[in-house]
TrEMBL record:
This is S41 family peptidase. One of its GO terms (molecular function) is endopeptidase activity. It comes from the Bacteria. Keywords: Hydrolase, Protease, Serine protease. GO terms for cellular component: outer membrane-bounded periplasmic space. InterPro entries: ClpP/crotonase-like_dom_sf, CtpA/B_N, PDZ, PDZ_6, PDZ_sf, Peptidase_S41A, Tail-specific_protease. The lineage of its organism: Bacteria, Pseudomonadati, Pseudomonadota, Gammaproteobacteria, Oceanospirillales. The keyword Protease applies.
Length: 438
């Protein structure tokens, strides 16, 4: 069989000479004239690379080399081609150069340099999924669903997601300017942030009241389940927990196994999550283990539009297993699984390989988790006007002792966070109902 490269110049012929062996490895020569197929699921998939398209690719490569206004080296062109292949698949697949690959690995371990923000793309726009707690981004007031239109004057519609992440990361104590368009506003807001070493502790905890715990998970890292288990043990030291609020608001996700580990803290049996993809090694299933520290503590889970990916796995599993009450607003809706694949040159791929499903078979992708009780974020306000006379209004009344400062601060916090206040009220109501039943 003769493979024609007529009309293609010498540089492109050399490129074809490199690419054609891939075709021959992909399908035996006798099958090149007739597409070979293999069945993956219910759809036939061709094993043959199209020679005509490969020839067109080589021709485009050659014309860029010869006619582009600036000289571009072969390595840059090939890297750009690979980036293009992945970026057109979905917003979460990407080609990672060595620096990007190392940066992603660091972020899953909980330490990296930057402003502390999780971003994605929607309709071709760079969007804030969520700022990470106690970072320059969260302190500056960046919010979920903000659209980043420029980074240091560079329009984001002209760069890839990975390039945007690279621009935002950098040396500590260096400044970065971000232009943000917020929903309902016509003029972008300008933020000047100072980069820091982001040492993200993913778990925080405290007692809101005696017996009522608060567990905040800001993202899912490899250490998160162990940290959460320790937090539960500390909160239950003085007395058993009568209720727990698990706060997953503005949690962008993270490591799948960490989400499974967190869910397993509250379930002693049953399915947590399963994944389905084209390849057998992407089909996984995770179930709860019988040993768990908090299998019977009344539970309320807080979510919002910034709760994504692994956070949605936890909320979806607890909802399907009727283990807790999901409260807040609809979650983000990222139900895909990415694998980080190292390459031989020190670089890597971040490739979407599967979708994950809740125990009842719900796909979260582009759907999200709907809360059992919808509560929008707001602030409690004391109504002005006529009110009933109370003991404190009577002349000569006895004064009570001043409440401890930490109790005052907690009361102010509950006023500022309506969702958290409602979650605590619900836990108390659940305990009242439970006592009456017993």
């Amino acid at each position: 069989m003769t493979l024609s490269v007529t009309g293609v110049s010498t540089p492109a012929k050399r490129l074809l000479a490199t690419l054609l062996p891939i075709v021959l490895l992909s399908a035996p020569l006798p099958l090149l004239a007739q597409p070979a197929t293999s069945s993956v699921g219910d759809e036939p998939v061709s094993n043959e690379l199209p020679l005509e398209d490969i020839q067109t690719f080589a021709e485009v490569f050659e014309r860029i080399k010869r006619a582009y206004v600036e000289e571009v080296d072969d390595r840059t062109l090939l890297r750009n081609a690979m980036r293009g292949m992945l970026s057109e698949l979905d917003p979460h697949s990407a080609y990672l150069d060595e620096e990007e690959y190392q940066s992603l690995r660091e972020s899953t371990q909980g330490e990296f340099g930057g402003i502390g923000i999780e971003v994605g793309t929607e309709n071709g726009q760079l969007m804030v999924i969520t700022p990470i707690d106690d970072t320059p981004a969260s302190r500056a007031g960046l919010q979920s669903h903000d659209i980043i239109v420029a980074i240091d004057g560079t329009p984001t519609d002209s760069i890839s997601l990975q390039e945007a992440v690279t621009l935002m990361r950098g040396e500590p104590n260096t400044e970065i300017r971000i232009s943000v368009l917020r929903s309902g506003e016509d003029t972008p807001r300008e933020f000047t942030l100072t980069r820091e070493i982001i040492r993200s502790e993913s778990v925080k905890h405290e007692l809101l009241e005696p017996g009522y715990g608060y567990l905040r998970i800001s993202q899912f890292q490899s250490r998160t389940p162990d940290q959460a288990r320790e937090a539960l043990e500390r909160m239950a030291q003085d007395q058993p927990l009568e209720g727990l609020i698990l706060d997953l608001r503005n949690n962008p996700g993270g490591v799948l196994q960490a989400a499974v580990g967190i869910t397993d803290l509250f379930l002693d049996e049953g399915l947590i999550v399963y994944t389905e993809g084209r390849l057998s090694d992407t089909e996984m299933s995770f179930s709860a283990s019988p040993t768990t520290p908090a299998s019977d503590v009344p539970l309320v889970v807080l979510i919002n539009g910034g709760s994504a990916s692994a956070a949605e796995i936890v909320a979806g599993a607890l909802q399907d297993q009727r283990r807790g009450v999901i409260m807040g607003t609809d979650s983000f809706g990222k139900g895909s699984v990415q694998q980080i694949m190292p390459l031989g040159n020190g670089e890597g791929l971040k490739l979407t390989t599967a979708l994950y499903y809740t125990p009842n078979g719900r796909s979260i992708q582009a759907q999200g988790i709907e809360p059992d009780v919808e509560v929008v974020r707001g602030r409690l306000e004391v109504a002005e006007g006529r009110r009933e006379i109370r003991e404190a209004d009577l002349e000569g009344h006895l004064s009570a002792q001043q409440a401890p400062r930490d109790r005052q601060e907690m009361a102010e916090r509950l006023l500022d966070d309506y969702q958290l206040s409602e979650a605590l009220n619900l836990l108390k109501a659940l305990n009242v109902v439970d006592r009456q039943r017993r």
